[in-house]
Amino acid sequence: MSDSLQNPQVDGRKQGHLGYLAFVMLCFFAASSAPTPLYHVYQQAWGFSSALLTLIFAVYALSLLGTLLVFGSLSDYLGRRPVIFVALLLESVSMLLFMGAGDVGWLIAARILQGIATGIATSALGAAMLDTNQNQGPLINSIAPIFGMALGALGTSVLVEFAPMPLLLAYALLLAAFVAQAVYLLRVGETVTPQPGVLKTLRPTLFVPQRARGTLLLVLPADIAAWALGGFFLSLAPSLLAAATGSTSVINGGLAVAALTISGAVSILNLRLRAPQLALLVGCSFLAVGVSVILLAVNLGWLWLFFTGAVVAGIGFGASFLGALRLLLPLAHAHERAGLMSAFLALSYLAFCVPSLIAGLAVKTEGLIVTTNVYGSMVVVLALLALAGLLVQRAGKANAA
């Protein structure tokens, strides 16, 4: 008889802890997108270029990537709780740096520390959710980051437009959430037994179990397309909307990110019970169509069409991420989960930051519209290549049967 049948309080406590872990991850990703609507405000106040703007964004993703490579498996050895606690403390300090920012140097320092904190937290939180519930864990691992990014971008843009202290309030609210979460962590039980050998894991590495490598190669093109699009939105969408449509409202930047991410969360909810291969097929198809619509909107200067394309592309973003996670994560054993999660997220964040950083540099010479056309076309090509690979695999299985 299971523990939950013997004692219903055990199951209720696990569900409560799962909800807590999901909320912590949501807040980390809300914090990651909170500066996006403010980038244009910072840029106008301090007069820096689009290349420097994407650098501010990219240092976050690069520091997150480096942290995942070095510390991604840490919680498999030290336990989930101490790793999550350290991440919450570092994230709280990064919020204080944002609140005190007076120039670009402060923003870069805050983003680097935030990237380190998020890198430490992400694999530990993801693995802890899988430990707590292997059925709902992959779903929450998919939906919490996406919904968090929507909440951070849209919430900050609304606060900037309608609330006092536009450069302080969002960070202050997030700081309060992280401090409260660090206190509540004392009530959450540990889900893995600490084991020796932690120093051996502190070498930069991408750990992928042998049985998961073929699947990773299959899902990687779709994952790169999705995260490259996300990186572009989180770094350059507010500036792009201003350049393409003439709109300077801060809310439009937040709405652009929210349109992409909320539709992604909705697609995850709708596809969560379907086969992961179907989710990937939907993801690749909608990514290609949605980005094509976005490019049309940018060249025509139509704001409503841009948001329409963002919603369609967001469906593809969410479906691709869900399908990839649901195919990959069950292939890892308990003490391999954080390592596989960190490897997958490291590759995702590489796609998240490097293309957008290159785009920021290209804006200097080619302009924002031309850069967007080239960038978007590459995302469409990647999505179509991934779709072709999935269809070929499906046809091969059908012939073998």
Low-confidence stretches: 1-6
Q: What is the annotated CATH architecture?
A: Up-down Bundle
Number of strands: 0
Q: What is the CATH third-level topology name?
A: Growth Hormone, Chain: A
**Secondary structure category:** mainly alpha
The shape, in one word, is globular
Describe the structure.
This protein is mostly helical. It has one domain (3-190, 206-400): Growth Hormone, Chain: A (Up-down Bundle). Helices cover 82% and strands 0% of the residues. It has 15 helices and no strands. Helix 2 (8-33) crosses helix 8 (137-162). The longest helix is centred in the middle third of the chain and has 33 residues, at 213-245. It is globular. The two termini are 38 Å apart.
Topology:
Blueprint: H1 3-6, H2 8-33, H3 36-46, H4 50-71, H5 74-78, H6 80-99, H7 104-132, H8 137-162, H9 169-184, H10 213-245, H11 250-271, H12 276-300, H13 303-328, H14 337-366, H15 368-400
Helix pairs in contact: 2-7, 2-8, 2-9, 3-10, 3-11, 4-7, 4-10, 4-14, 6-7, 6-9, 7-8, 7-14, 8-11, 8-13, 10-11, 10-12, 10-13, 10-14, 10-15, 11-13, 12-13, 12-15, 14-15
Provide a brief overview of the structure.
The model is unreliable at 1-6 (pLDDT under 50).
Any key phrases for this structure?
Growth Hormone, Chain: A, globular, 401 residues, 15 helices, mainly alpha
